[in-house]
Design brief:
The structure holds two protein chains of two kinds.
Chain A: H1 3-8, H2 18-22, H3 27-55, H4 66-102, H5 110-133, H6 146-149, H7 154-182, H8 195-227, H9 240-274, H10 281-294, H11 310-338, H12 347-370, H13 372-378, H14 382-412, H15 418-444, H16 459-489
Helix pairs in contact in A: 3-4, 3-5, 3-16, 4-5, 4-7, 4-8, 4-9, 4-14, 5-7, 7-8, 8-9, 8-10, 9-10, 9-11, 9-12, 9-14, 10-11, 11-12, 12-14, 12-15, 14-15, 15-16
Chain B: H1 2-5, H2 20-55, H3 57-65, H4 69-94, H5 98-129, H6 148-181, H7 191-215
Helix pairs in contact in B: 2-3, 2-6, 2-7, 4-5, 4-7, 5-6, 6-7
The chains are: A mainly alpha, B mainly alpha.
Amino acid sequence: MSSAADKSKNYLNHEKGLWSWLTTLDHKRIGIMYMITVMLFFLIGGIFALLIRFELFSTGGQIVDADGYNRMMTFHGAIMVFMVIIPGIPAFLGNFFLPLHLGAKDVAFPKVNLMSWYCLIIGAAISFFSLFAEKVATGWTFYTPYSISETSNGAILLVLGAFVMGFSSILTGLNFVATTHRLRAPGMGFFQMPLFVWGLYSTAILQIIATPVLAITLLLLAAEKTMGIGFFDPKLGGDPVLFQHFFWFYSHPAVYIMILPAMGIISELITAFSRKVIFGYKAIAFSSVGIAAVSFFVWGHHMFVSGQSQVAGVIFSFLTMLVGVPTAIKTFNWVATMYKGSIQFQSPMLYAMGFLFLFTIGGVTGVMLAVMAVDVHFHDTYFVVAHFHYVMVGGTLMAIMGGIYYWFPKMFGKMYNEFMAQLSFLFIFVGFNVTFFPQFILGAQGMPRRYFDYLPAFEPLNRVSTVGSWLIAIGFLIGLYVIINGLLKGKKAPDNPWGAKTLEWQTSSPPPHTNFHEQPVVTGGPYEFR
Amino acid sequence: MSSVNKPRSEGGHAFHFDGPEHEFETTKFGIWLFLCTEVLMFGGLFVAYFLFAHKFPETFIEGATYLDWKFGAVNTAVLLVSSFTMVLSIYYAQNNKTKQCVNMLFITLACGFIFMFIKYLEYTHKIDLGLLPGDMFSFTGEMGSTNLGLYFSTYYMMTGLHGSHVLVGMGLIVWCIVRARRGEYNSKYFTTLECVGLFWHLVDLIWIYLFPLLYLVD
C-alpha cells in the first residue's frame, strides 16, 4: 500500500453518482446529506423569520393579515425546531465525527442511520405539504384546545410530519448510544472520549427517553382531532393541561437536545484554539450528563400560569435553577481553559467566544424566568422570545457555524476564505444582538409574543429589531458564500490545519471510506494526539 | 478481513465490527434501547390511564364491566403460548434444526392471528353497541357513571396501539420465516430472529399489563 495512492482515495470519490449518495451507508456521506438538507431548511425557516420581522417593522398589517402572520410564525417555529436545530448538530456534525472521534469505521447501524435521514425527509415533506394545503396557526407547540377547535385539518399534517421526524431523532440517538458503547477504538475508555462525544452521548440518551413521549402525545392529538377521543377536552372529561404536561415532558428535554451537542462543539473549539488541554475534563463531561438528568424534571416551568399547584410551581422553579449549576460549571471551565492559553482568533474560535457571550445572556435570563414571580410578568412576552433566541441562535447556531468552519477542512479537504468567514461572523454577531436585545426591553415593557400587531409605543424598538434581522441575513449569506467558495476554489487542506489534538485530525483530509488507514489504538488522553 | 465478505450464516460480519460476536452483542444492545423507547411511548398512555382512573374511578370500574374478561383471558393465554414458541424457535435455530425452527415460527404467527381475530370480535361487538371513544360514544343502555366515552377512548387507544404492534410483530415473524426457510439461521447466526423475539416478548408483556388494567379493575 503506497501512501500516495492510498490518500487520493477518500469517502467523497469512493463511489460516484447521485444514486450512490442516496443509498450510501457511509456515516460521513449521510452527515453531508444532513448538512445539505438542514441548510436548505434553515434557509426556508430564515425566510419566514425575515418576513415576520418585516411584518413587525410597523404597526398594522404590512404584507400579510393576522391569519397569514400566525401561519408564518407557526412554520418558522416548526421548521427551525424540528428540522434545523434538533437534527442540526447530532445528525450532521455528530454523524460525521462521532465514529472519527471514537476511532470506529462507522456508526453501529449504518442502515438505520440512512433510514433516519429518510424519516427526516418524509416527515419534512408531510409538514411542508400542510403549509400549502391547509392553514395551521397553532405555533409549533400545538396547544390544546386551540389546535383541536381550529377548523382546518392542517395541524394533523404538521403533527404527523413531526411524528415521523421524531423517529429520525430516536433512531439517530439509538445509533449513537450503541456506537459510543460498543465501537470505541482499542484502548479508549469513556474518559478518553473527546467532550463532543460526551455531549452527543447525553443528547442521544435524551432523544431515546424523551422523543417517544412526544410521539404518543402527537398521536393522541391526531386522534383527538380526527375522532374526538376527549383526552384533552374537558367537555368529555379530559384535560387540556394534560397536553401541556405531555408536550413539555418532551419539549423541555428537547431544548437540551439542541444545546448539549453545541456545548460539546464549544469544548472542542476552545481546546483547539487555546492550545491547551481542556480544564476540568471530567467536570464538563459529567455536567453534560447532569444537565440531561435534570432536564426531565423541569418541564413545569413552562406552565407557571397554567393553573398547576403552587407547590409544583415552587419545585419546578427550584429544579430549573438547578440547571444553571452544571451549565455554569461548563462556562467557567471554558474560560479557565482560555486563561493563559495562546489563543488564536480564527473564525471557529470567534464563534466559540460569541457562544460564550450570547449563551451566558441566554442562560442568565433563563434563571430569571425560573423565578415564579418574575415569570408571571414575563410569561408569553418578547422577553421569553429574546431569551430562547439567545440560547437557540446565540448558543446552538453559533456552535453549528463554528463547528462547520472548524471541521470544514476535514470534511472536504479544502480551506475556506478566512477573512470572509470572519466578516460573516461580525455581521451575525452584531445583527443578532441588534435584533434580539431590544426584545428583552420590549418584553419587560409588556409586549406579548405571537401577536400580529402591537401598540404604537413599541414601534421604535421593533424597527431596530427588524434592521438587525437584515444584518443577520447578510451574515448568513456571506457564510453561504464562504462555504460554496471554499468547496469550489478552496486551497487543499493539510490533515491537521489547526494543530488540534483530537483523534479525527490524525486521519487524512478528507478521510478514507473506512475512516482511518490503520486501526487507531488509544494510549493517552482525548487531547493528546500529536 | 476475509470474514467480512462471507454471508453471516457462515460466520461473516459487517466491516465495521471486529467479529460476528461483536456484531451480535451490539445489535442486541440496539434492540434493547429500541424497546426502551417503546416502553416510554406506551408509558404516556399508562400515565393518561392512571390520571383518568384517578379522576373518574366509578367510570373506569363501570367501563370494565362492558368488556368480557373471558376474551381477554384467552388472548393472554394465546400470547403467552406464542412467546414460548418464539423462544423455542430460537432454541432450534441455535441447534441447527431449521425445520423445527420454522414450525415454531408458524405457530407463533398463528397465535398472532388468533389474537387479532378475538380483538376483531371484541371491537365489532362494542362498535355495534355504540361503545365508542369520546365524542362518538353513542351507547343508549343504562349507565351508572359519566364520561364513559373517556374510558373507551383509553381502551381503544391502548389496545389499538398494542394491536398495531402485534401486526408489525407478525410482519416481522413472516420475514423471519422466509429467512429461516432459506437456512439463514443456524448456530453461527440468529441475530435478527433473536431481536424479533425480544420485540415479540415486549408486545406480550405490554398486554399482560393491559389485561388487568382494562378488564379486571373491578
